[in-house]
Amino acid sequence: MKFAKNLVKTVFALGLIGSVLVFSSIFYVNRELPTDFKVTQGESLTIHSELPLKAVYTDSALSQGGAIETPGATYNVDLKLFGMIPVGKAKVEVVNEMYVAVLGEPFGIKIYTEGVLVVGLTDVDAEEGNRNPAKEAGIQEGDFIKTINGEKVYSNADVSRLITESQGRPLEYLISRDGKEKKVTFAALKSKQSGTYKAGLWVRDSSAGIGTLTFYSPACDVICGLGHGICDVDTGELLSLNSGELVNAEIIASTKGKSGAPGELKGRFESGCLAKLISNDETGVYGYPATEVNCDDLMPVALKQEVVEGPAQILATVSGHEPKRYDCEIEVKHNSSAKTQNLVIHVTDPEILQNTGGIVQGMSGSPIIQNGKLIGAVTHVLVDDPTLGYGIFAESMLETAQELTKQELKEAS
Q1: Percentage of the chain modeled with pLDDT above 90
Q2: Are 142 and 117 in contact (CB under 8 A)?
Q3: Element (H, E) at 31
Q4: DSSP structure string for 142-203
Q5: Which sequence positions are flagged as catalytic?
Q6: When comparing pLDDT for 397 and 23, which is higher?
Q7: Rounded Cα distance, 153 and 171, in Å
């Protein structure tokens, strides 16, 4: 009898453990794994994860070991624990292997926004008391002002001129907010102190900085860099692009990073345009090259499921113009279902740790190479530990470049 009771308890405990494992697997798949994957011709999907997951093809021919040979074809798979217990589903697209020219050189970026960005609102010291006419009319921080009385504005000088010329007459402002446009009308107020007319606005019209080029795609004829979008420092909003360019740059000095104080690469812009900027996207900045790019030594782009924890190298320029490889470890594939911050990178190379302390501002876009493939790019440093940072999958950046090319072809047709 005692043996039977112990057996029942053991079976119950094992069942409970099994249930917890299954529910944990379902939670992990739904939160961490993407629902769409790519595989190259002749390959099947292999999941590298903390759990023993296997992709089981639901197509009868493929489930029996048939080869996946047709680029552009899509298949559905069941994600199964131990290859037996269903915990999720995914879609697989067959693609040709993708090759790019890996870069790693520094660049300077000049962005001119679509209209001017409202970065602050402040009261005007008018005769009737402190008031903010822009705020009263409904303008908010993060809005883009595109026209004033029908005239396009490209700089804070344009805005100041039109407000001054109004002499207190109402002006119509066309603003863009969250991709939607609206018009507001209000009159500027005369400042008691300065005697000039003011709307109560602080605006910014452009941005400049230093970053690192990630790769050039010959198939798309697009240069990619940075690995994250350029956002306004005050509002945190992605800058809406009107025009811009990527220019040659040289790294002339660096500030070493330490806990609580990220370091920085200091560079200077040089003559010569590298690319005309076509997109400031959450996955990076993209442009059409202005000069020929050397494509003698192309490298395949790793698909996200091919990235594994373990040794890798960062290709970065921390002095001058020429990039060097530095050792690092991929410690975590983090949030692989998201577009950005997919990897956790630990810099281990003694040389770069001596020079910069690890990842610093200006290294964003530095290519990450593992097992002979481009797997991603550096995007952020962890403030508390500069030897650690985040990275983005190279596959995500290439997907953005491909979408931009498709969009350009569609507009031209």
Answers
A1: 45
A2: yes
A3: helix 2-32
A4: T-EEEEETTEE--SHHHHHHHHHHHTT--EEEEEEETTEEEEEEE--EE-TTT-SEE-SEEE
A5: 228, 349, 364
A6: 397
A7: 13
User: Hey, what's the torsion of the CAs at 401, 406, 409, 413, to 10 degrees?
Assistant: -160
Q: Are 390 and 360 in contact (CB under 8 A)?
A: no
Q: How far apart are CA 339 and CA 283, in angstroms?
A: 7
How would DSSP label each residue in 36-76? Answer: EEEEETT------SSS-EEEEE-SHHHHTT-----TT-EEE
The secondary structure element, H or E, covering residue 116 is strand 106-121
Q: What pLDDT is recorded for position 310?
A: 94
Asked whether the beta carbons of 364 and 378 are under 8 A apart, the reply is: yes
pLDDT bucket at 23, cuts 50 / 70 / 90: very low
If we measure between CA atoms, which residue out of 312, 330, 327 comes closest to residue 374?
A: 312
Strand-pairing partners, residue 273, are 247
Q: Quote the strand ranges of 256-366, DSSP E.
A: 264-281, 284-289, 299-300, 310-316, 324-333, 343-347
What the block records as the tokens of 392 is 């983005």
Decide: helix, strand or coil at residue 289: strand
pLDDT tens string 68-88: 667 777 778 887 777 677 777
Query: Among residues 118, 219, 232, which one has the least CA distance to residue 173?
Result: 118
Task: Give the global pTM.
Answer: 0.74
